[in-house]
UniProtKB/TrEMBL annotation:
Gene3D superfamilies: 3.30.450.380, P-loop containing nucleotide triphosphate hydrolases. Belongs to the GSP E family. Its main location: cytoplasm. It comes from the Bacteria. GO terms for cellular component: cytoplasm. It is found in: Cytoplasm. Keywords: ATP-binding, Conjugation, Cytoplasm, Nucleotide-binding, Transport. It holds the Pfam family T2SSE. Residues 62-339 form the Bacterial type II secretion system protein E domain. This is TadA family conjugal transfer-associated ATPase. InterPro entries: P-loop_NTPase (IPR027417), T2SS/T4SS_dom (IPR001482), T4SS_GSP_E_ATPase (IPR050921), TadA-like_ATPase (IPR022399). One of its GO terms (molecular function) is ATP hydrolysis activity.
Length: 396
């Protein structure tokens, strides 16, 4: 920001002085306090300049600084900072370089550290990364130099206060025409299912929309590493993990949350993302009367999901045979999303699970993406039996 009558360097120095005075006093950067701080430095500015300085400082001290306009854009899902002059956004069509810049690398570091502090996380040379959720739900990830070479790297994932409806996802091309009927039938049949895909492909968005279709008389209990699911539903209980404090105490893991959720009378048990030993407790729960549960998992394809779960469960101490026995009885359907080269997120395939002659679980393609409707595959008949009448489900 530049101030009238001052060059860029003098304006920056003046604002630095005001920033220091406000930080020392702990005062909010109101116009009156900014004017007082300016007067204390021997500067007298007009009303417009004082208001401009106050807005700039408030954005930096209590907001997200230069990133505020980007985060306020309803189309933006991700904001990524890799250098002072390299700020990228994703509006659903791939990454775009924006004209937004920071004065220098130190400004990026200050913003990252302040946001981490707001989220209750430590971010300094001793702990050079942070993964947290801001008060408005935005997901924060930051890495400081020298781990991040050259400049602090900042990634912000925007969580919108309102979940998309299934109809909106059809209109956006995430779900093919008529595919919403199949997804609704999956929920109505109280099948346990898993949403798989890579990072940023829309797993959380789709799962939030699907949970919004659950009957209003059902109780949904969510267990998440970072609270991102926002289903439009009247009865949702949300549980979130917590890191250990600086003394190493107070850690709450996703495994802890799944165990607690089972004692909270869930009609639908939902794990935001399975990535560790919680998979054992989730599969056990889905095998003991908790129908209709669901989760997300990172996987390159629906066919890779059994191997992915096997790796997680083995690390947790569950042997391969036991895992596949649990998996065969616990889960029925895998819905896999992809993000194509144009940036469009869509359901690429729907698989059903079955055991082969060796006793291992594999996935069988039931539906694949089609521009006009889902295209039926060899597992369609099994899916039809699970969810209902094929005449009502569509597909071609």
């Amino acid at each position: 920001m530049t101030l009238p009558g001052l060059d860029r360097a003098d304006g920056a120095a003046l604002l630095d002085g005001v920033r220091r005075r406000l930080a020392e006093s702990g005062a909010e950067p109101t116009p009156a306090r900014v004017a007082q701080a300016l007067r204390e430095q021997g500067r007298v500015l007009g009303d417009a300049e004082v208001l401009g300085a106050a807005a700039h400082l408030r954005s930096e001290l209590v907001g997200t600084g230069p990133l505020e306009p980007l985060l306020a854009d309803p189309d933006v899902t991700d904001v990524l900072v890799s250098a002072p002059d390299r700020v990228w956004v994703d509006r659903g069509g791939g990454l775009e370089l924006t004209p937004v810049t920071f004065p220098d690398a130190a400004a990026v570091r200050r913003l990252a550290q302040r946001l981490a502090a707001v989220a209750g996380r430590r971010l300094d040379d001793a702990r050079p990364w942070a993964d947290a959720r801001l008060p408005d739900g935005t997901r924060l990830h930051a890495v400081l130099p020298p781990v991040a070479v050259g400049c602090t790297c900042l990634a912000l994932r925007v969580v919108r206060p309102r979940a998309f409806t299934l109809g909106e996802l059809v209109a956006a091309g995430t779900v093919p025409p008529g595919g919403d009927r199949i997804l609704r039938a999956l929920l109505d049949a109280r099948l346990s299912f898993l949403v798989s895909g890579g990072t940023g492909c829309g797993k959380t968005t789709l799962l939030s929309a699907l949970l919004g279709l659950v009957g209003p008389g059902e109780r949904i209990v969510l267990a998440e590493d970072s609270a991102e699911l926002r289903p439009d539903h009247p009865h949702v209980v949300r549980l979130e993990t917590r890191p250990a404090n600086q003394e190493g105490a107070g850690l709450v893991t996703l495994e802890d949350l799944v165990r607690q959720a089972l004692r909270m009378r869930p009609d639908r048990l939902v794990v935001g993302e399975v990535r560790g030993p919680e998979v054992v407790h989730l599969l056990a729960a889905l095998n003991t009367g908790h129908e209709g549960g669901c989760c997300t998992v990172h996987a390159n394809a629906a066919a890779d999901v059994p191997a992915r779960l096997e790796a997680l469960a083995t690390a947790a101490g569950l042997d391969r045979a036991a895992l596949h026995s649990q998996l065969a009885a616990a889960l029925s359907v895998v819905v896999h999303l992809v993000r194509d080269r144009s940036g469009r997120r869509r359901i690429a395939e729907v698989h059903v699970l079955e055991r082969d002659t060796t006793g291992l679980v594999r996935t069988v393609p039931a539906l694949r993406w089609g521009e006009r409707a889902f295209v039926r595959e060899r597992g369609w008949e099994r899916l039809r039996q699970l969810v209902g009448d094929a005449g009502e489900l569509g597909g071609e």
